[in-house]
Amino acid sequence: MTDTAIEAAALGKRFGGPSRRGGWALRDCGFRLPAGRICAVVGPNGAGKSTLLAHAAGLLEPTEGTLTVLGSHPSAARERIAYVAQDKPLYPQLTVTETLRLGHELNPGRWDAALAERIVTDGHLDPAARIRDLSGGQRTRVALALVLGKRPELLLLDEPMADLDPLARHQLMGTLLAEAAEHGTTVVMSSHILGELAHACDFLLLVGDGRIRLGGAIDDLVAAHRLITGRGPLTDALAPHTVIESRATGRGLTALIRPAGPIAPGWEAAEPSLEDILLAHLRSPDAPALLTPGATARSSASDMSAAVTA
Ligand SMILES: Nc1ncnc2c1ncn2[C@@H]1O[C@H](COP(=O)(O)OP(=O)(O)OP(=O)(O)O)[C@@H](O)[C@H]1O
């Protein structure tokens, strides 16, 4: 069993057709996601989050570089991976019961029928209802029942909670996290709901313009930043540090920095929240990337392609 859920080296994906990045949806992405983490994939619209998840699910092949999942090429790990795409494709003509039966048939030996049925029952879904007659949020519940019932080692969820009402979101997130904790499942979920991620996730990948801008355990990323506030001369306060964003506020100036030495006297330094860090990076797309040592790929693209083809 590998201690790495996903590892990418120099990963690039180019789609045909005109685009603002010369057709590159992802470019030069390198990172490592340790197994057992709950990882948030965050970034602006069009950043490359879905493309990254689809590579991990084995649905897209890289144009350059490599990506391994649970130590193998994603296609070799398919039985151990479950993936819910953003549009949550299901068979519209099947009923809820028939959909779960299909899940059972497709996953012999690992299907957790009790769990899948509980997720559907908790949403008060009529087992005889056809998928096409369900609401978007109800379909999401069935899709989550299917992937959790599979008991995957790696669960890839592309904006899983977007169309759920707040109560359903809270309840399903609770079920998801409890199952992941019990079975050591690695979960990767993209989301735009920053507040939700801070509670649920312990690892972060921030994708921007097709590149990994931040990667690491959330505790390590928080520890690498400081929110400083003060009124003194700007140059003294900010000089040695990497400044992600600085803004004038009622109290003088507030800046999110990556400290490179002591903070200047007279300036207050506080621990930023995950939301502070994400918003500052989203507002400052040119800030330098940061990958913590735990999130740095251990292998080069050539090592990984040799391992995958061996
Ligand atoms: N099948 C495709 N063919 C052509 N271009 C694509 C395709 N899929 C994605 N792209 C392009 O790749 C880039 C990244 O798209 P992707 O869907 O991965 O972004 P995202 O971060 O998931 O966005 P969102 O938050 O809006 O879901 C975009 O510029 C998009 O237009």
From TrEMBL:
Q: Which SMART domains match?
A: AAA (SM00382)
One Pfam family in the UniProt entry: ABC_tran
Note the InterPro entries from the entry.
AAA+_ATPase (IPR003593), ABC_transporter-like_ATP-bd (IPR003439), ABC_transporter-like_CS (IPR017871), ABC_Transporter_VariousFunc (IPR051782), P-loop_NTPase (IPR027417)
Identify the residues that the record assigns to the ABC transporter domain, covering every copy. Answer: 6-234
Top-rank taxon of the source lineage equals Bacteria
Any one Gene Ontology MF annotation carried by this entry is:
ATP hydrolysis activity
Query: Which UniProt keywords are present, listed alphabetically?
Result: ATP-binding, Nucleotide-binding, Transport
Q: Tell me the Gene3D superfamilies matching this sequence.
A: P-loop containing nucleotide triphosphate hydrolases
What name has this protein been given in UniProt? Putative ABC transporter ATP-binding protein YbhF
Organism classification, top ranks?
Bacteria, Bacillati, Actinomycetota, Actinomycetes, Kitasatosporales
**By which gene is this protein encoded?**
ybhF_3
